[in-house]
Amino acid sequence: MEPTPLSSAEKKELRGLAQRLKAHVHIGKNGLTETVLKETDTALTKNGLIKLRIETDKALMAQFCGEISEKLGCEHIGGIGKTAVFFRDMPVEETE
After folding, report:
1. How far apart are CA 45 and CA 25, in angstroms?
2. What is the spatial distance between Cα 54 and Cα 61, in angstroms, rounded to a whole number?
3. What pLDDT was estimated at residue 83?
4. What single-letter DSSP state applies at residue 74?
5. Phi (first) and psi of residue 38, to 5 degrees
6. Sign of torsion over alpha carbons 23, 86, 41, 67
7. With contact defined as beta carbons under 8 Å apart, do 3 and 89 qualify?
8. Could you state, in order of their start, the residue ranges of all structural domains in the chain?
9. Contact in structure between 25 and 36 (CB atoms under 8 Å)
10. What pLDDT score does 1 carry?
11. Angle between helix 58-72 and helix 34-47 axes, rounded to 10 deg
12. Are the C-beta atoms of residues 90 and 65 closer than 8 Å to each other?
């Protein structure tokens, strides 16, 4: 089931919440490696809303953000400078 895209108001609210977050994952000179993707996936599963620090130029940063969204099923909701914010609904825990 494909998650419904967030509205502009929802994205704005999440960006406000993300201001107080520290970056969970730093993407450096090695780029978007499998290790970075796994770490990002783990952070999204645990927290839902995360901030990434991407040390690269704007064009490559946009490419990385697109790849992360596509591969991890999350939504890039914004960012400033070298910081990007991603959101994914947290899985609902099964209760018996």
Report:
1. 14
2. 7
3. 94
4. -
5. -65, -45
6. negative
7. yes
8. 22-87
9. yes
10. 43
11. 60
12. no
pTM of the entire structure? Answer: 0.86
The pLDDT value recorded for residue 7 is 86
- What pLDDT sits at residue 95? 57
- The CATH number of 22-87, from 3.40.1440.10, 3.30.110.60, 3.10.50.40, 1.20.1300.10, is 3.30.110.60
> Scanning the structure block, which residue is given the tokens 């201001």?
19
Taking the C-alpha atoms of residue 54 and residue 51, their distance in angstroms, rounded to an integer, is: 10
Measured in degrees and rounded to the nearest 5, phi and psi for residue 76 equal: -80, 115
CA distance 56 to 22: 18
pLDDT averages per 10-residue partition of the chain, 96 residues: 74 90 90 94 93 92 94 93 92 61
Locate 90 and state its tokens.
């947290």
Identify how many contiguous H helices and E strands the chain contains and give both numbers. Answer: 3, 4
